[in-house]
Amino acid sequence: MKLGTDNKLETWAAIILGIGAVLSVGYLLTSSNRPGGSGRATTSPAQNTGAAHPVINPLDPTIRLDLLESAQNVKYEGKGRNIFRAGAPVDIPQPSHNVLTDKQTPPPVPQPPPGPPPINLKFFGVASRTGEAQRIFLSEGESIFVAREGDIVNSRYKVVKINPQSVEIEDLLNNNRQSIPLTQG
């Protein structure tokens, strides 16, 4: 098995560079823990000479009770503003009188939701042959459909019942039944 060690000079150069990289990383990691090292060393409040805020090492596991106490003593003095809404708070005026005792017109009764949309099919004929089920002719716009009882028309309407003067259609999307009369034209 060949490991790519044909050129001995390149192999030794790669080994020496690898060892140098490992030693450099090791030195950098250990120098940050030495006092006066070149890494990120923390300064204690006693070592802090006039700085506004001491530099805190995020990896320092000691509990700083002074910082904890100052965070616990913070009191929220908000003005009732909703921090989850953008913009200035809106003052809602309070009514100056009792709304329940006033003799005013009652609030309008909400209207019921509108019914399902009408079925736009037009029934314009019946075809029947002896021994076969009746077929009807329906139109919607420029499209013409031929169907029997139980058939689905235009992927939406089901032919429920065929009568001589009308046809009962069910809108499968809106769960609506409608009787469509025979129209001439």
Q: Quick recap of the structure?
A:
The protein has 185 residues and is of the alpha+beta class.
Describe the structure.
The protein has a domain of 60 residues. It has 2 helices and 7 strands. With 185 residues, it is α+β, with helices and mostly antiparallel strands. The longest helix is centred in the first third of the chain and has 24 residues.
Topology:
Elements: H1 8-31, H2 65-72, E1 122-127, E2 135-140, E3 143-147, E4 152-153, E5 157-162, E6 166-171, E7 176-181
Antiparallel strand pairs: 1-2, 2-3, 4-5, 5-6, 6-7
Care to count the β-strands?
7
**What is the strand content?**
15-25%
**Elements, N to C (H/E):** HHEEEEEEE
Overall geometry: flat
Low-confidence region ranges: 38-46
What's the total helix number?
A: 2
List the keywords.
185 residues, alpha+beta, 3-stranded antiparallel beta sheet, 2 helices, 7 strands, 20% strand
